[in-house]
Amino acid sequence: MKGFLDYVPGNSFLHKLNPLTKLVLALMICVACFISENHILLVAIILLNLAIAKAAGILSRGLMLLKGLTKISLVIFLLQLLFIRGGDVLITLPLNLLITERGVAMAFVIVLRLIGATMPLALMLSITQMNDLSNVLVTKLKIPYKYAFTLTTAMRFIPIFANEMSGIIEAQASRGVELDTRNIFKKIKFVLPLCVPLLITSVKKIEGSAISAEIRGFHLRTRESCYKGYPIRKSDVGVMFFSAFLVFSAIIISGV
Amino acid sequence: MIKIENLTFKYRNSKKNALENIDLIIEDGDFVGIIGKGGAGKSTLTYAINGIIPHHYQGDYYGSVKIDGDDTFDKNPSELSLKIGSVLQDIDSQMVSSVVEDEILYGLENFAIPKDEVEQRLSSSLKELGISSLRYRTIESLSGGQKQKVAIAAILALRPKVLLLDEPTSELDPKSSVQIFQLLRELNKKHGITIIVVEQKIMLLSEFAEKLAVMSEGKIVLNGKVRDVMKHSSELESIGINCPRVVTLSNRLIDRGVDIGKVCINLDEAEVMARGLIHG
Q1: Residues B122 and B191 in one domain
Q2: Rounded to whole angstroms, how far apart are CA atoms B186 and B121?
């Protein structure tokens, strides 16, 4: 899932929304996922996520996310299936393991929730510039700039580290380390030592970034410093209402 | 004016002094090149000028660096940045944004430049470096050379009094390197900006800089007008700096008693010299 947080430029309706609106929409979809225990609603939310991806012109990334999350979900599904017990016993397995009706139902809920709640945040970050996000956090939500800068810098560094790591891996592979082995244990044995050079370059890069911010007046910045304005337009209000509606319907349908 | 007096600095956990007894005066409007082989302390010296030392990197610090009379010890790098614009060596870590426009805006916002002035500064600094077309590109999609230009544009937009650059052409092709130095000369001549540039390419320095400080093992071993420094070509060679061929040639001629007047530091001068010798 390399590059799943990189910004994808575009001109869609969603790109043009206020970053705050996008954040609210993403968070509200998460909230709706956590409120709901209804399978159909959860599937509907996942479809909504894909629809959002389509509208923003990043459907392929949406599908890539879905695929990646499904793989992780499979493992979680199996574990939940065995650990949650309740209702009728469907299958009895050796070692006193049971698969129960409630186990199946809850395992589905948890997996669908995981997918439904992870996608919107990743999608939101794909169509929002980090700087815009940090500016909005500072100007609209009054978060101190120091923290907003930390958050966005951390996000920005993820792809940089991913590149760095693939560079290190290529360098090792070209020197004959069998990193493409199919044996997972062997692979871990080869990749683990590479974390050391990654850590060293990371610390160096972060230090460089801190220096660079300092010598460009980081400490002089105030809340009023932001040049770009982020007005809340009608479309933003509409999307915010839609977000509220989502949470509201999740509450009604789940009967919480 | 930048006045460095008796500066000695040792990084924490290091055994050797990175800088030793540095004395250097840089007048307003100077164009100074700093040269020396790797590990000579060039970057450390730039850190001492822009306040990264002693505020960010700590260690044993003796002596003083004064910018227009203010000791860098008393002002943090952000305050110093109002006067001194620095372009770092590692361009990738210098970038704080993901889009070129935001990268240039970053400093302007921090400096609280009036909003009606921002656009003009933004577009003119992009134009000066010939990268107006890159304005909306993501930093990640740029080549090394383009990033270097963006980094310089971001500092230029702040209109500093002093421009401090650490190997600004390391990622550039020869033609773009010359363009950058031409731009630096223009900034120096037209706007009176003091230029301090660390550079390995001695050809560029001998052509564009007015003064040269040569560093070796944390010390400044030669310092003065470019032509005066170039007279010491054998000393330069001994500390690992290859002089331009015209310099070596003219120095050899002078050593052998041929009267050519002065050391030639560029091709044009060498041509004049050669013509003079031929026509007697």
Answers
A1: no
A2: 17
Q: Which residues, at least 6 apart from B277, have a Cβ–Cβ distance to it below 8 Å?
A: B258, B260
Rounded to the nearest 5 percent, the helix, strand and coil shares of chain A are 75, 5, 25
When scoring A214, A219, A223, A226 by the number of chain B Cβ atoms within 10 A, the one with the most, hence best to mutate, is A214
Q: What residue in A sits closest to B53 (Cα-Cα)?
A: A211
Interface contact B155-A216, CB threshold 8 A: yes
Residues A36-85 have pLDDT tens digits of: 888 888 999 999 999 999 988 888 888 998 999 999 999 999 888 888 87
Domain ranges across chain A: 13-136+231-254, 144-225
CB atoms within 10 A of CB A34: 12
CATH number at residue B221: 3.40.50.300
Last residue within a domain, chosen from B159, B178, B205: B159
Q: Is A226 in Cβ contact with B98 (below 8 Å)?
A: no
Decide: helix, strand or coil at residue B159: coil
Query: What pTM does this model have?
Result: 0.79
Tell me how far apart the alpha carbons of residues B110 and A222 are, in angstroms, rounded to a whole number.
7
Instruction: Tell me, yes or no, whether B210 and B172 share the same domain.
Output: yes
The pLDDT-based confidence of A1 (bands split at 50, 70, 90) is very low
A178 DSSP 8-state letter: -
The CA–CA distances, whole Å, from A85 to A77, A81, B13, B109 equal 14, 8, 58, 57
Q: Least CB-CB distance to A225: which of B93, B102, B110?
A: B110
Q: Are residues B71 and B172 located together in one domain of the fold?
A: yes
Q: Are B184 and B197 in contact (CB under 8 A)?
A: yes
Q: Are A77 and A111 in contact (CB under 8 A)?
A: yes
The shortest C-alpha distance from B213 to chain A (Å) reads 24
**How far apart are alpha carbons B255 and B275 in whole angstroms?**
19
Strands A97-100 and B2-11: unpaired
Name which of B277, B229, B233 is nearest B257 in CA terms: B277
For residue B45, the enclosing domain spans 1-83+160-226
Which CA distances in Å does A163 have to A153, A157, A212? 16, 10, 21
> Is A196:A165 a contact under the CB 8 Å cutoff?
no
| Peptide bond just before B54 cis, omega within 30 deg | yes
Q: What is the pLDDT of residues B226-254, one digit of tens each?
A: 989 998 988 998 988 888 888 888 888 98
